[in-house]
Amino acid sequence: MREKLVLGLSGGVDSAVAARLLREKYDVTCLWLDIGLGGGEDAAAVAKELGLPFETADIRDALEERVCTPFAQTYLAGKTPLPCALCNPTVKFPALLALADRLGAPYVATGHYARRGTGADGRALLRKGRPANDQSYMLSRLPQDILRRVVFPLGEYEKREVRALAGEAALAVAEKPDSMEICFIPDGDYAAWLDRRGNTPPPGDFVDREGCVLGRHKGIHHYTLGQRRGLGVSGPHRYFVSAIRPETNEVVLSDGTDLHADRTRCTDLNWIAIEGLEGERACTVRLRHSKVETPAILCPDGDAVEIRMLTPARAPTPGQLAVFYDGDIVLGSGWIC
Asked: Which of 11, 66, 312, 333 is the S-S candidate for 323 at Cβ 3.0 to 4.6 Å?
């Protein structure tokens, strides 16, 4: 008898191909997560097309409490949040595991481009997917009790290969465009979404490092560290956001030369490949959701970690994740503070 598995089926090409691959080995049940914006028709159609059981779970309340509210609070504090990294360990995977437990399924799966392994000490490992599409950064908050039950069927594939598999199988979603926006802000206008929730900061001053007023901003929630576009300020050089000061409702602009840092600090650590940091450790670090990795030394600092970059990194941004790598293995992650 094949083992049971619950797959998060979004209705996109990635999870559709994941479903097709997984049904060859597992007894798959598909779960679509309802956030109140509709769109479950494609997921239901894929499940029907593949002959797989299909269920839905209403996650609106959990999403609001654990993702949307912290997302808004982080922006209003002058930081830049990362909602997908919040959602995975607190909403998405717990919803999949809840159904898995009800069905007696030992495993859950998603269409993420990452790989899971097991260390010599028995710890579940999170590994990078193929370089072109690796999504390990966004999964780096998963704790051991979740990670050890996860299957990533697309970890050995690139997106172009997944598209080709979908085409060969004549899946209805084979040509469906990728979704690149935050799921609960489908139009991508996060500032307008925050404004609709109310209590957003009023316009204030753009200032330089000396406090001289350079212009007026639309509200600090419209800006992020390192931003250049959309400032509307002219001067002797291009301007970049180099600091956000919620306490004075000011956005600090500079020529960008002050944005690089050779140190930053992280809290709320989630160790994956190791139990903790016992001393200094060499690694590479990603400071944002990109392919850029910087050689660094991790240094214990109480309940936090100081990251000493061997090459200065541009604009380590409070609210974003620092993810630590040893080759293709994710050592752990922490929130930049």
From this structure: 333
